[in-house]
Protein 1
Amino acid sequence: MDSQLILASGSLSRQALLSSAGVSFRVCGSGVDETTHKAAGMKEGLDGQAMTVRLAEAKVRAVLAQEHTFGVRGIIGADQILEHEGVWLDKPKHKDDARKQLQALRGKQYCLWTSVCLATKQGILWRHSEKATLRMRPFDDTVLEAYLRKAGEDVLLSPGACLLERHGIQLIDAIDGDYFSILGLPLLPLLQALRQQGWVTL
Amino acid sequence: MDSQLILASGSLSRQALLSSAGVSFRVCGSGVDETTHKAAGMKEGLDGQAMTVRLAEAKVRAVLAQEHTFGVRGIIGADQILEHEGVWLDKPKHKDDARKQLQALRGKQYCLWTSVCLATKQGILWRHSEKATLRMRPFDDTVLEAYLRKAGEDVLLSPGACLLERHGIQLIDAIDGDYFSILGLPLLPLLQALRQQGWVTL
């Protein structure tokens, strides 16, 4: 039954969370242009929560519009936004961009909004959002450069240039919020929703 | 510098947390007989926190007594106890034991005490404890048996027969506490202590 689930996200961290929990699914990239959506959302004055809900839903809709979803039971969409002083940070485009993000965030608190939704061809069935607060410890340029060197390409995988599953955790000194959501997927509420739909039977 | 660190724990989950964070260390089993220590602790009326501190310290002392720690800079000890209605649960010894633990815990809240300490040949330098509360969802025997089948040998790896990094997370419906500590190691305070000692330089 599980194998008729699609995760509308290319995020390796989301895939890892769901696989580890023993849920069967296949991955289907949505091709949604997040930058355009975010620019529109900013213009409308959406907050981080509303924006992640809109993007999670846009991703499942885009996947539903694809022909190879025939016979699929349900689709999981998810999105996450890093918000710092009213600005949404994207994944860094290159190392210099990562350096700038780390310079802006060190010694500061920032917020992660994470939303997940479930949908079928009939529409969105369920949605859930979480907010988490993280604090990046203050560190000097020597540490910053050593981190950039050690973390390598990892810095491009995460907004804020700080991949918490790897070296990035060494830059953080406080986490307040659900760790699964921080990794990109509110796993406990999602599993509950999947059980309620009968899509996961354990 | 990091490579002169020893983790006095055979726990794969602790090793994974520390490796992922980019800390270099080697593993050295302590050989501490936890059952005897716990029986003594129970008799003395220790609570879960005091017991995990005592065991974490016993582990580093046992490792320090071994000859191959010559030249080692620091040793990390850690311990975790699952407490439910005043009883400490060990890892299940076999599948029937796992079944009994799950029957006792389903629909219930339980507590995880986790302690970590740092030591040198001169003695214990630092210790830290965390408490987390988890709730196992109520599930019937069909789900229980399906879980035992799917989780396989994983059920023997964790007290409560519920390995949260894998299928076990499907049995949990609420987590309150630091997720790293729940996995066995209060990672953020430990990294901070390692930096303060100059044993981790990032």
Note: Residues 48-64 of chain A form the longest helix (17 residues).
Protein 2
Amino acid sequence: MKDKILIVKAGGSLIDCEAKWQHFLKEFAAIKKPKILVHGGGKSASALSKKMGLTPRIIHGRRVTTLEDLPLVIMTFAGLINKKTVAALQSYGCNALGLTGADANCIRSSKRPTTPIDYGYVGDIVSIDTSVLLQWLNLGITPVFCALTHDGHGQILNTNADTIAAQLAIALHDLFETELLYCLEKPGVLLDSEDSDSLIKTLDYYQYEKLKHNHQIHSGMIPKLTNCFTALQNDVKKVTIGDTSLLREDCPTGTRIILKKD
Amino acid sequence: MKDKILIVKAGGSLIDCEAKWQHFLKEFAAIKKPKILVHGGGKSASALSKKMGLTPRIIHGRRVTTLEDLPLVIMTFAGLINKKTVAALQSYGCNALGLTGADANCIRSSKRPTTPIDYGYVGDIVSIDTSVLLQWLNLGITPVFCALTHDGHGQILNTNADTIAAQLAIALHDLFETELLYCLEKPGVLLDSEDSDSLIKTLDYYQYEKLKHNHQIHSGMIPKLTNCFTALQNDVKKVTIGDTSLLREDCPTGTRIILKKD
């Protein structure tokens, strides 16, 4: 039987609130089984951009990473957030190692084609080196990835953290029984985004398509759920979306994503 | 017989000139034996501070790292410089892994006492985990350290890159025959800092004390040379200061530092 591994993506406003982030990190550090953390950038990159006088460009709800934005993105993602997260995890007894895809050539990507839309310095994942990840996990090290990869020719590229998490879970499924958790501030996928009592406990692809069609699932939740279904279609064992309480094994919470109901 | 390892510190204006830095990284990547790179911050942290409206505080020629400076230092050292360096080294065929002392708990430090001078969030090295470094080196990974450590309680601390390099060389001398190189833009220790023909080829402690007394060696070269002599007193095999040509084994250049002349 394969060992289990948890791939946890955390982001959104969870990362912007220091108290909530520290609570999340304490819970994450307490998980005994092998684990990997992937974190988003929160609002810090946009905040720094504004301070530096840059105006973010958004196309179809997605941010463009210009040549001027890229250094700020690298500074906040790989510098400030990643290293503060690593230092905090170390203080909670978790032997964290902060990473971009460039480090030890873990995750290679290629710059997204500029047509039909030019998103700038954004990378689509090409390959993941699972052997080095396995060696680190065997040493008791917990990899902590920020949302950056590289093209192998010296170029760092901004890469969606949800996608990195899903692709890590897929890449590792030969070696482990992989479980993918998307941690947000909200308790999971909600029928009404303002009402946390409207939590959907189990969501299959058919229901997802219906809710998307009715605009009950929209904006950022759509690419997140696309990553969830891609993971399940590629043999990731279990996918859940929810808040920090997801990390406690004793109380199953959140929205369990499944391909189809039996 | 022990294997050899090179610990290379690079910094100063070498890091601020993109063409010179890429040349250095190409030469560094080409070194076949096990190696570790430690890089300084160049002028980028000060430049960012100024853009953010902060005024650097200098006491006795040393910069104070205030609570406001620390995030900028982390962003530039661990983010921008470290990750661009890693991505460039990867493109030159060197399997680099970017690190702070917090990553995998490599280098622990304690915050420097605030008396007689309060330098702020500055750390003095307490311990180095050589076992994890050895495991990485055995995997063909080249550690690339920036000038940051942690106290194990969640606090990242600014730590002099010259000292990190010397302490790494000392910590590794049980496992390797260690050689320490300080790479600058200048060809080595000069009798007249404006005249590169005034290179001192070999410098021992007696001569150093004499030149320091006569103010021929001054400012930043003093703490650098203190690190050199500390390394030699603690069984580091060879210590040299010079420019990028130091990295070529076929042409010995720079200033060789020794404890005393035979």
Note: Chain B has a mean pLDDT of 93.
Protein 3
Amino acid sequence: MNRVGIIGIGHGVFGRRSDATVQELAFEAFRAAMQDAGIDRDALDASVIGSVPEYHKQRSLAGVVQEYLGLVPRPTWLTEVACASGSAAIRTGWMGIKSGLHDVVAVIGCQKMTELSTPEILALMGRVGEVQWESGFGTTFPAYYALFARRHMHEFGTSRENLLQVAVKNHHYGAKNPMALFRKEITLEKALASEEVATPFQVYDCCANADGAACVILASEEKATELSDKPVWLDGMGCASASMSVLRRPSLTGLPSAQQASSMAYEMAGVTADDIKVADVHDCFTVAEIMAYEDLGFCPKGESGRFIEEKQSYIGGKVAVNVDGGLKAKGHPIGATGVSMTVEIAKQLRGEAGERQVPDADVGLTHNVGGIGQYCFVQVLKKD
Amino acid sequence: MNRVGIIGIGHGVFGRRSDATVQELAFEAFRAAMQDAGIDRDALDASVIGSVPEYHKQRSLAGVVQEYLGLVPRPTWLTEVACASGSAAIRTGWMGIKSGLHDVVAVIGCQKMTELSTPEILALMGRVGEVQWESGFGTTFPAYYALFARRHMHEFGTSRENLLQVAVKNHHYGAKNPMALFRKEITLEKALASEEVATPFQVYDCCANADGAACVILASEEKATELSDKPVWLDGMGCASASMSVLRRPSLTGLPSAQQASSMAYEMAGVTADDIKVADVHDCFTVAEIMAYEDLGFCPKGESGRFIEEKQSYIGGKVAVNVDGGLKAKGHPIGATGVSMTVEIAKQLRGEAGERQVPDADVGLTHNVGGIGQYCFVQVLKKD
């Protein structure tokens, strides 16, 4: 057996971080993770940086972060797959250890979204959609996911309220997360009265851009056992791709990449969806979490509306989902998000999530989507 | 023993490829590599894309390439470390196989440098230098390397002619490479008469941006032996980082990351510099090849001038360097370059390089630099 363990986790405050450069954000998370692991830099062999580089004025981001963290001359490089860049970095670090190249690797997801102006950011984001046939004709990200939402409502009777119940839940838990961008509860009434964005979406259906960083320290089984008395294991690593264009998708009510990535991860970890006690899923829009319930097998196809209605994704329900606030309330620094999810699930499995702790959490999952599901990374984490 | 083998190589024509999008360039190289390997897509488990995404109007490049190559729903992601992005992709693919996650992986380096205007490209490239203290004050890439050149000349008496002798050699061999951007010989006199760029550099000291792609198919030892009768083995994988800023370097006459990455790669492969018969090194400027001779141990420190003067890096000399034309004559599509190097060395070890074949080539090396040496990846390849 040769597992890869998480021996340190660190997370900065997500938000408009005009107080910090991207490398300073990275350091904040890295320092916390190293202190958590109780190791110093001598123990580290390499780093992997998850980020979408073009949002920063300084390019060659891996080098900048590497130097600022004091990790020169170790190997480093950056992984990019839009909003799933952080999970690609974890997968890369995992492979680095599992391959025998490295024993201990720092994985840092970091992103500054506020260096550029809003029009610049909108232009960049639009270009993550298929530029030749789609984004040029108005399919911004809210518009893409609004298509998914309308289709889900049409086919399965998912209600407007169901979508916003996801937001209400995630704000409920976000209020308990000191690292979250929005730390206040919202009511369904308030959400239903919010400004329209792209039919059927209103403001509270959409997550918010944020600056932020998160870090995990990965180690080989031998090193993890030696260095940590509470390692969490990355036992299932799923990853799949899907077409850029929604025109070439078989259905608009789910993400095929999420279905495939989760099957892979479950099989590799030797678990089923029923074993998952806590999950962080990619709720960039409310419908994304609705689709994730089904794509991940938490409920049968088409029944997500009832699932959230019955609070099955709250603590105490079938599986606790996004009890750190999710992208919705925690904020979405795109390169950091995947690592942030892994930090949260590791914390839950360690039983250290405080007032949002999921009882008896022994198996957890992260579900990190890039673009409109062009990529999906699913990881299954276990306590022992 | 569990080696990783190269079972297929493919390379497109480098140049101003207004005939092709970046995904079409990727396909050109991918198809050639798949035909070379004699396999079809069913044999592939995953892909890794090496590229610098911000030069393309379409973002989320891994997804675009993945779909265009017909590789959905396989895992894919992109690696970025400036001009070493291609080698980071190979290292990632190598780890994916070595970790046991995958058996056969396609690694594609691809880059379109001509989608943006020249001022846009210059602005982007400048930002790969350290923006806070250096690039804002005029250290473009030619200026950075010109600093290295002047220091090398000052400390070791390396002559203006020595630098341009590198260009003469690389054009000599580039003329024999049908995939090269510049396929004509130049004379030292012509080079010495060319326009000034950044003292001491003239036009012929500098490589040229180009569009292009290259692809290698990697396989586990078991699969490589099964699928190929001429696998080439990736036995040494070195990687190191260095400070962003030249102000924080101990010396300007070499790249510490190259020295460290090559030591790692030699040790891992069980070879020394003396065993290397053929090498592709990162000659973005003539002095970069001069420094590489020393950083890689091909000649003692400070003796590179004499080394090129004596034609020790020609076929028939101590070690044949850049006999595909190098970045100088072949062109430099930044994300493709590392993969292009690996394609060339594999071809040499297979004895298929035609009129630029290095006799008895059994051990070869690639040396791919990101930025001004913030990253260096060195790979040692063996025939058997």
Note: The first helix of chain A runs from residue 22 to 37.
Protein 4
Amino acid sequence: MNTDRSQSAPEAQEATTLMPTRPNQSESHAVSKARSGSLASSRTGSRTASLTGSVKSSRGGSAVGARSVGNMVKKAGTRVAASSAAAAQLAESASSNSPAMKDVQSASDNRNIAIDRVGVKDVTYPIRLRTKDGGEQTTVASINMYVALPHHQKGTHMSRFLEVLNDETSEPLTPDRIPAITRAICERLNAEEAHFEAEFTYFVRKLAPISKRPGLMDYRVKFACTANGKEDFIMSVAAPATSLCPCSKEISEFGAHNQRCRIEAAVRFKEMVWIEDLVEILEKAASCPVYAVLKRPDEKFVTEQAYLNPKFVEDIVRDLALALEGEKKIEWFSINSENFESIHSHNAYAQITRDKR
Amino acid sequence: MNTDRSQSAPEAQEATTLMPTRPNQSESHAVSKARSGSLASSRTGSRTASLTGSVKSSRGGSAVGARSVGNMVKKAGTRVAASSAAAAQLAESASSNSPAMKDVQSASDNRNIAIDRVGVKDVTYPIRLRTKDGGEQTTVASINMYVALPHHQKGTHMSRFLEVLNDETSEPLTPDRIPAITRAICERLNAEEAHFEAEFTYFVRKLAPISKRPGLMDYRVKFACTANGKEDFIMSVAAPATSLCPCSKEISEFGAHNQRCRIEAAVRFKEMVWIEDLVEILEKAASCPVYAVLKRPDEKFVTEQAYLNPKFVEDIVRDLALALEGEKKIEWFSINSENFESIHSHNAYAQITRDKR
Amino acid sequence: MNTDRSQSAPEAQEATTLMPTRPNQSESHAVSKARSGSLASSRTGSRTASLTGSVKSSRGGSAVGARSVGNMVKKAGTRVAASSAAAAQLAESASSNSPAMKDVQSASDNRNIAIDRVGVKDVTYPIRLRTKDGGEQTTVASINMYVALPHHQKGTHMSRFLEVLNDETSEPLTPDRIPAITRAICERLNAEEAHFEAEFTYFVRKLAPISKRPGLMDYRVKFACTANGKEDFIMSVAAPATSLCPCSKEISEFGAHNQRCRIEAAVRFKEMVWIEDLVEILEKAASCPVYAVLKRPDEKFVTEQAYLNPKFVEDIVRDLALALEGEKKIEWFSINSENFESIHSHNAYAQITRDKR
Amino acid sequence: MNTDRSQSAPEAQEATTLMPTRPNQSESHAVSKARSGSLASSRTGSRTASLTGSVKSSRGGSAVGARSVGNMVKKAGTRVAASSAAAAQLAESASSNSPAMKDVQSASDNRNIAIDRVGVKDVTYPIRLRTKDGGEQTTVASINMYVALPHHQKGTHMSRFLEVLNDETSEPLTPDRIPAITRAICERLNAEEAHFEAEFTYFVRKLAPISKRPGLMDYRVKFACTANGKEDFIMSVAAPATSLCPCSKEISEFGAHNQRCRIEAAVRFKEMVWIEDLVEILEKAASCPVYAVLKRPDEKFVTEQAYLNPKFVEDIVRDLALALEGEKKIEWFSINSENFESIHSHNAYAQITRDKR
């Protein structure tokens, strides 16, 4: 895809902040990775003035040199790898900071159509998050980053999004830092409006209700932020839980169908809300929370708790709405629950959106 | 999940319209299916007054009879299937149209919280569609159906959604029939507002550009409609296509990276637009359409066409926006393209929404 | 991808068998589709001997003509579409059955490495199936088709797989016709061994257990066949169902956790087994089947049936194994059940494979 | 699901090793989480002898107490939460280590059917891995853990799988530690055979080929191990890459279709192979590797490298097979490549399996 005008050498400080690893990770690995790149490996150390000069002139002139390399290789057949001489020449050609390498993205566009969002989607990236208790947690996010593009500009510079990501994730994230990251996209991409979205699994340690055995529960979290002078940040947390059907309980002589459900709340808040806070609210809205590790006394407990606490999908979203309406930090919410019905192959679903402002 | 108050016997006319099959499908299969249901099979023909009566009285009374069946089976261990006598008794108990079988969903609710959407999600269902040329096509849809629930009502009647679906899909669908289906949900569920969503694969026969070999192209289509007095219908079509990067072409001596992309348009229209119409518009916005079958002369053609027609993801959405702005039938559109970049593991994405009204 | 040597004009008989549509589908649609293809449209009817000849000679000679078209367009900038004159010329160039168009796939390969499977994957395609009761059903399949490639051959001809698919699916499929389709791949691709795999949703009409309301249940089915002189065909069917935990029932004062599960059986058989037959066997192995439409008396029935019939995931696969061992038509099976535990966010799983031969 | 016989209090050492967090994570968080559990919170500190005793006796006796709680709540209607008194009583009932709480899983089974695999599937869990350069990396895995169950045993103890996972992941993983984890499952579950499977994203820092800008590439990795006296471990790594079609290049005047592909190698090795080692081998088999960050000179380089290095999907797997046959540490491999064709909506695929032993 399209790239950037700035073609400087790699900056050391970017390299050091790139990955959430322990201090004993040496740089030698990364270097050896780069060297192992097929064609690149043959040219290490060969960036002599003469070679670069010769390719440069060939580009400025009739482009015969490089073109003939291409033709040569094409004629040589499809299986024969480029000769190392040709490869080195190509690498030099590419690395020469030629003024002739046109910046297509920066060209003007005369279709008179502004673009609402353009950028990178589904970037898989490790992120560290600050946990509510002051610790840290590393997870893997799927990230989207977009800007609004004015009508007169042909294209955005995609590689800069990745550079912002590299820079901004060197410190552990908290929900309240996301607006600053989104503003950083505006600045780096020189855009009036930017969007940042990240979705990831977040783990919370949870003890079994009776045996107190520890386990790790996984929740799906989304951060979504728009910055265009002011910032609009929405945090979503989805928790698996148990729902037990009140109708089934009422009409049956024994038992009641129940199932895993997925309860989700997207919220806008005026004071910091932690992922852990939302998890707690979400799980209270279910017939019973779910757990990673349950011993027999725990299983008895959750079975009976769910039976004592039957809820339609409608009840879950209503009880969750009540809880969020009572939470002063939260200004707006959009909630839903999806029940993976144990008696059907389809799901039951309910959704409520409320603006408290 | 919650069910319906109407507990009448199966209606023959529903049964006959249920499935898009050829006339030679007999009813005997469906009946044998039902009879093969484990417990149900033992009770066929046994709905005698005496049995029904005995269970009824036990429910009206102390419920000792059925409860003791449950205890008996529980004590008998987990592997032993219910005795056929017990099973028959339970089937009778369930089938008796007892006035004691409470309609929990119709109870009142005092939390004072209306629900925006509640219903069934991810119903997998076969649908027939009328094609633009007057033929028909059967495909498999994933369907969501929701209603708004007023604050005072405890729950909706989920099974009725499926009944609407069974009834309304007996005739081939066209985009302009979807509002009527959505209104039918309002009526059957007695709701002020209803939502209908269906997503499915739609096939269009397409000839290879040079050899004219026929092939079937698959497109993803979504219908989404809200009815609340008036109807708001949105149709989305997504087409796979080829995009070729203008920057890569410009700066490289030979070749240009290209990739599969996915171009999508959601539209509101005031005059009927066919899926086929949108497909045609979408494919023109790409560097080149994709095909199911390509012989060598075709492959040469599409390779060269894409190279002659380089487009950034920004170009694709802008050209598509231009085309849709020029299409008088269309009042509103939201379009996007996602390029599965051949030189990255992430995607490039652009999106534009415009209201022409 | 790679294409085929045979570059003849489109064959009418292929076109007519391509799509499972009603008789009133005219050919005019397909033709108009082809005409709407961007570049192709300008050349319709222009396949005159003179034009073809001129391009041919340019290819046979210095290739200056077509090459200069490319350069011209490249220099003209990235947004300007190819002129229609250039486009027509390219189409002619591609359509000319030039002896110079090399068949790269048929070249010899000297790496001495045979390929186990090579072909097309994830082809989305409509298929018609014969149902057990003699009717028909159209659904959408995801299809893979592969051949073994001997060490000396460079590549396979991918487009031929699609042509086999077009030809072989004109008649409704039954499980016992799959081996013939797989043999057809061997023949058309001139291969010693071929593989055919199709996965699709299959619908079975099912009446609610008490109210007898009709509904459509969806099952996931896979056909997988290898042909290499003899044929090896495996059919898999997966059914959603209800499982209820015996431990939870045993240790709890009331209730028992239950959930949707997915029970799957892959079988090799020596006498025809219908999808419907496997569905029936699968559903009997669960605590209770699931249904599309359930009214209140039905819901009472399935709730109680599941409670009376508690099964661990281990019990489900064992009972299913017992049933399949007792089924004489079946020679081999591999079965599994996955329970989407209502009290955990992970699943319980069990699997058994047995060869009865 | 089924649980374990051991019902002791939580063990402190398990708690401390549970999560890969920094030292400043205090235990207070986990404790407060547990306290926030709905019913459990009301009983903290209330485990007095008298209460426990009273519930115990009620269970040992007529079970009137707890049963009547259930009835009371059921009659109270579906929306009323259990009173806190009832909840506390239930929690006590569950926590009492009653000899009456039957271990259903340990019962004998008389169906005479052994189960090949039974256990937990799709456990989402954070894992830390040792990187080749001596550092560490935390990622999120989807984990399956199974045991073989002898014919005479009714069920396995699912919660123990999670306990093994908690225990064994306290130290950073390397591929050569997986067999020991699998043996630990055998021991803890008292099984003859166990299976461990983990799939996760692994990041490798990679410099752009010319600008040397750093970026993080994401690869999908699978560990799969069976232990049954001896261990059989298979490691799979999948890398995204670029493939460029030799046929398209050969027959076209300019350009060549190319696309993202996914190249995967599963290997058995006799000497330690790092994920990084396989990544390097995989990427060399493609037309060109892909990168996270590419500036313009990099984009020129990868475009031209791919064009100089055209490969059918067949070429990719053959070149990869050659490389793995030359790698002495590797004893067996199964490799495939899937090309997401830019000119089709389906994929091209090839696969080779070889045993070098």
Note: Chain D touches chain B at residues 78-79, 104, 109, 217-218, 240, 242, 244-245, 247-248, 251-260, 288, 290-292, 294, 296, 299-300, 302-304, 306-307, 340-346 (CB under 8 Å).
